[in-house]
Amino acid sequence: MLRNMKSDIQAVLENDPAARNMFEVVFTYSGLHAIWAHRIAHALFKRKWFTLARIISQTSRFFTGIEIHPGAQIGERLFIDHGMGIVIGETCEIGDNVIIYQGVTLGGTGKEKGKRHPTIGNNVVLASGAKVLGSFKVGDNVNIGANSVVLREVPANSTVVGIPGRIVKRNGARVADRLDHTQLPDPVIEMLRAMQKEVAELRAELEKERRDKQERQDKHERHEKHEKHKQPVAGGETRP
């Protein structure tokens, strides 16, 4: 327990640039308090002290705004940043070195029994407002973008964005800065940019065609004017 607590504190110091010292982290970080309360509740849950475990869980929720079911399994060095509104379901499993931002939901999709919540791999980042719903696996080294809704399995080394979640990066190099969850590609924006480029090209072609047509018309008018000046006048002479 003490080893896990020290590891949890170290995870905060490493991942949060606002964390100044261990004293501040221990007494002011609600995400850390929620994790510690969960470790106690989970130990009681495994011993079938379900009601007491839920009481501890709900008390932690009241003070921190983070709801973690006592049955959820959490690995080492979980970092919860600004954790208000986070919900983690009963059968959820979270690996090591995971980062979760505010508003994240790791939930189910119905009233089915048994395993109904996601399994999160190691080194995963769940950005603000992300929803991962269902009993599937999210692989290691995955980034899930802000407000994404993930409804199916995500392979390792992937980046997911959008509603529903779409994989926009797969089997690529791991993101250098795991905390920079704003620099994620958006396929919708990329499609709109491609359409905008195509429209610009079509406009350029139309403008070129308009200029060519105007040049042909001007040339024709000059030719007609020249021919008109060459027409004969009275006395058998031609115009100069």
Automatic annotation (TrEMBL):
Biological classification of the source: Bacteria, Bacillati, Bacillota, Bacilli, Bacillales
Organism: Paenibacillus glycinis
CDD domains the UniProt entry points to: LbH_SAT
SUPFAM superfamilies: Trimeric LpxA-like enzymes
Coiled-coil ranges per UniProt: none
Listed pathway(s): Amino-acid biosynthesis; L-cysteine biosynthesis; L-cysteine from L-serine: step 1/2
Region (Disordered): 203-240
Reactions catalysed according to its record: L-serine + acetyl-CoA = O-acetyl-L-serine + CoA
Catalytic activity, EC: 2.3.1.30
Enzyme class (EC, first level): transferase
Stretches with biased composition (Basic residues): 222-231
Family membership: Belongs to the transferase hexapeptide repeat family.
Domain of life: Bacteria
GO MF term set: serine O-acetyltransferase activity
Name of the featured protein: Serine acetyltransferase
UniProt KW keywords: Acyltransferase, Amino-acid biosynthesis, Cysteine biosynthesis, Transferase
UniProt xrefs under InterPro entries: Hexapep, LbH_SAT, Ser_AcTrfase_N_sf, Ser_O-AcTrfase, Serine_acetyltransferase, Trimer_LpxA-like_sf
Compositionally biased region (Basic and acidic residues): 203-221
